[in-house]
Amino acid sequence: MNWYVRSESWIFIVRSYLPRLMLCSLVWEIAQMPLYTMRAEPRLRSFAFAVAHCTVGDAVIGTSALIMALTLSRAGERTIWPRKRIGWLMILLAIAYTLPSERINLADGNWAYSTWMPVVPWVDVGLAPVMQWTIVPLVTWWWANRQPFRAHGFR
Hints:
Helix content: 55-70%
Number of domains: 1
Distance between the termini: 19 Å
Strand content: 5-15%
Number of helices: 4
Largest sheet: 2 strands, antiparallel
Order of helices and strands: HEHHEEEH
C-alpha cells in the first residue's frame, strides 16, 4: 500500500516534519535577511512580514518536496521508508524549484541581493538559497525521524 493512504504518513508530515521545517526555515530566514535588500524602508514591520512570508513559502516548498520524494521513492509503510533516498530526493527537488524561482523573482524585482550575498556564477543565484535547500531539509528530515515511532501515537 502506498504512503499517501496511510494515516501515519500524514500524521508524521503534519505533526513532526512540518513544525520542524517551519522552525528551521524561520531561523534560516532571519539569519539570511542581511543578504537581501528590502524594497521599503527596513522597518520592523516590513522585516517581520518578509520573514513570515518567506517562512510560509519555505513550508510549502519543503512539504511539497517531501510529498514528491515519497511518491518518487514509492514509499509504503512509514517504518520501511527509504529515508536516505527520500532525503536526497527532497534536496534535489527543492533546489530544482529554487533555481528558476530565484531567477524569476530577481528578474521581476520581487527581491534583490545585497552586496553581501555570494552568487553561484554559472546560475546567477545566491548561494544562501541553494545552501538553504541543502541544509534545512537534511536537518529537518534527521530531526523529524530522530524520534521513536511510538512518540507519534503509534505502537
